[in-house]
Amino acid sequence: MAEHAAMNPEEIERLLAFDREHVWHPYGPMPGAVDNHPVVAAEGVRLVLADGRTLIDGMSSWWAAVHGYRHPVLDAAVADQIGRMSHVMFGGLTHPPAVRLASLLVDLTPEPLTKVFFADSGSVSVEVAIKMALQYQRALGRPERHRLFTVRGGYHGDTFADMSVCDPVNGMHHLFTGVLPRQIFASPPPGGYADEPDPAYLDELASLAARHSGEIAAIIAEPVVQGAGGMRFYSPAYLRALRDLADEHGVPLILDEIATGFGRSGTFWGADHAGVVPDIMCVGKALTGGYLTMAATLCTSEIARVISEGEGGGLMHGPTFMANPLAASVACASLELLTGRDGRGRDWRAEVSAISAVLEDGLAETRGLPGVRDTRVLGAIGVIETVEPVDVPAIQKITMSHGVWLRPFRNLIYTMPPYVCTPDEVARITEAMVAAARSL
User: Any transmembrane segments, and where (predicted)?
Assistant: First the structure.
């Protein structure tokens, strides 16, 4: 595959020159300050670069490609659907892939979540969730309840409402302070996943919620794992506390399961760590196995009923590519493959558990290294938190020399590998991360 896909040096330079001057990449300047690495093919858990090198993808393409690349089951699902229809508007129409996917999601999510709204991306699914909460309160005759209660350290996406519930101080959206809606923030959850809950922090949550009770529309959080806000793991007790506060103040609990859903943290849903059930849930990323962009927002029958009986007569949202048949078809195949419902006997729990064990063993030696503040593992997530922000290109040069693709950010060198990685492949990832940590 590598030999067939490789480009010659002149072709690579032309591609990079145009990319540098005209193609704007995530969170980067224009023109580009550093060259990106051209990928020409991917198969299994490996990316093939234009120069013929192959790299183990330790990022699952931003946590989505849990089955790796070119999986025959997912390829077949796309090929079958493209022979029927690639897209049809969802306004006034429906189709089997969407209905089948909604049925799967209702079956796989906690029992009260019975209504499914399809969105284009994870960010949009959070926008939809926030819109649900606001319309719900308005329909109940409580328009003054228009602010979101959350904790600092979170990340929920890059669209406008999403940015307002991301960390307002240390998050990537502080540039928009002053124009975003002002939400209600508690301190970041203290300690780690296994730490005993801090009574003082529980008191802070309770007092803050009580002080703003009359204006809270909903409580929103990432369950147990705060993703792009800092890759922190927190005690399930704090999630239970947020559930209790939502009940006490009569507001919905929104859980953003976009990064944590579908087994990534060791339980199928992040909320399972705490044994809680949200009123609104956002899912995405691994939903389609990384093949196409798609997400969903699920809610209870009660929330859907109240919204639908309100002044709008329904939820005021409708993306052009909502419930795209190609994406829905591959999402169905991905979920059936992940849960073993396709008859192939996949065991996501065993896969994630095996990855977790290798990550824990392989990253253990980084604890106590100069420049390393903390090393932590939960499920198929491994994180080295450094004392100072890392030089991303320099770290990537090291990890790529070990045959591994990682994408550090700020002071985090981390991995979320595909579930189908072998122990040897996960060990290669940890070796690359250890080398990076030793270079600090």
Answer: none
Residues 275 and 298: their CA atoms lie apart, in Å, by 18
- What's the rounded Cα separation, in Å, for the pair 83 and 143? 47
Beta strands in 222-343 (DSSP E): 225-226, 232-233, 253-256, 280-283, 295-300
Of 57, 162, 167, 256, the active-site residue reads: 256
Considering 131, 285, 414, 419, which one is annotated as catalytic?
A: 285
Q: What is the pLDDT of residues 244-282, one digit of tens each?
A: 999 999 999 999 999 999 999 999 999 999 999 999 999
- Kindly give, in sequence order, each residue whose CB lies less than 8 Å from that of residue 92, ignoring residues fewer than 6 positions away: none
234 an active-site residue? Answer: no
Q: Find the length of the chain.
A: 440
Annotated binding site for pyridoxal 5'-phosphate: 122-123, 256, 319-320
Identify whether 57 is a catalytic site residue.
no
285 is catalytic: yes
Give the active site residue among 136, 155, 238, 414: 155
Supply the pTM of this predicted model. Answer: 0.95
Encoded tokens for 292: 């196409």
What residue numbers does the annotated binding site for substrate cover? 62, 155, 285, 318, 407
At CA 39, angle to CA 37 and CA 41, rounded to 5?
Answer: 165
- Domains along the sequence of the chain with CATH: 9-70+347-438 (3.90.1150.10), 74-339 (3.40.640.10)
Indicate the burial class of 308 (C-beta count within 10 angstroms; 0-12, 13-18, 19 or more).
middle
